[in-house]
């Protein structure tokens, strides 16, 4: 499907990469971007991620067939309420947020009331580097994109959104918003908490100054995602707090079992711990699930 106008509300890493992918693949006649800072307009023009960047939300939204919210979770409702008077009837609105249940519950009725369609999306792509200057056209290539329609979703709009994500290179799957949030609490949100705690604990100034000198590749790779936006991950943790708290409890229990095995000197249990992890990860990578 060819779109006449696509608007990216927020043009950072995800929004900028989406703009590059749309333009490179010629999926839209026009790509507009809404930004908060005047300096971002020049950055967008330099990177070529949109045809026109503006701080005027109504101008960016006007006549758009597809609108993608690439803003922090905490800002989505506020911006959506501001967008409503400018929405084109029948337009599709989606987002790239990492939490879906609360977003869908808040935005779907608001946008439906304006005569448009909201369907949640979560492309499983990104990185610890933020901002439009980190954008790249292949960010979504082969990445899973979770689409979260509800019983109220317009079927044609859902199909068109699936085709859009396929067209930028991703592999769309459909999940209920609550199922999505449960699954990503383990695979995405928990790893960020673990990486952040590793960085906080190991690099604490309370440790000897030589500590940082003996942090090699394993530590660097394991904590890479701890360099992500603190504000973004604050919002994600709060929005999916119920699920994240539950899986943290299970994770802590598993670590306590490992700790007990160490205290007992249980060589078999310790080896099985590492062997099971290796087998499961190797199988996951072998099935083509790994984005590496």
- Whole-number mean pLDDT: 94
Q: Tell me the helix content.
A: 40-55%
Q: Name the CATH architecture of the largest domain.
A: 3-Layer(aba) Sandwich
Terminal-residue CA separation: 30 Å
Please give a quick description of this structure.
With 292 residues, the protein is α/β, with parallel strands linked by helices. The chain has 11 helices and 9 strands.
Q: What's the SSE blueprint?
A:
Layout: E1 3-9, H1 13-24, E2 28-34, H2 38-47, E3 52-54, H3 57-61, E4 66-69, H4 76-83, E5 92-95, H5 101-113, E6 117-118, E7 120-123, E8 144-148, H6 155-167, E9 171-174, H7 177-202, H8 217-222, H9 230-239, H10 241-264, H11 267-286
Parallel strand pairs: 1-2, 1-4, 2-3, 4-5, 5-6, 8-9
Antiparallel strand pairs: 7-8
Describe the protein.
- The structure is a single chain.
- The protein is an alpha/beta fold.
- It folds into 2 domains: 3-175, 3-Layer(aba) Sandwich (Rossmann fold); 179-286, 6-phosphogluconate dehydrogenase C-terminal like domain (6-phosphogluconate dehydrogenase C-terminal fold).
- The protein has helices spanning 13-24, 38-47, 57-61, 76-83, 101-113, 155-167, 177-202, 217-222, 230-239, 241-264, 267-286, and strands at 3-9, 28-34, 52-54, 66-69, 92-95, 117-118, 120-123, 144-148, 171-174.
- The strands form 2 sheets. A 6-stranded parallel sheet has the order 3-2-1-4-5-6. A 3-stranded mixed sheet has the order 7-8-9, covered by helices on one side.
- Strand 5, helix 5 (101-113) and strand 6 (117-118) form a beta-alpha-beta unit.
- Helix 4 packs parallel to helix 5.
- It is globular and about 65 Å long.
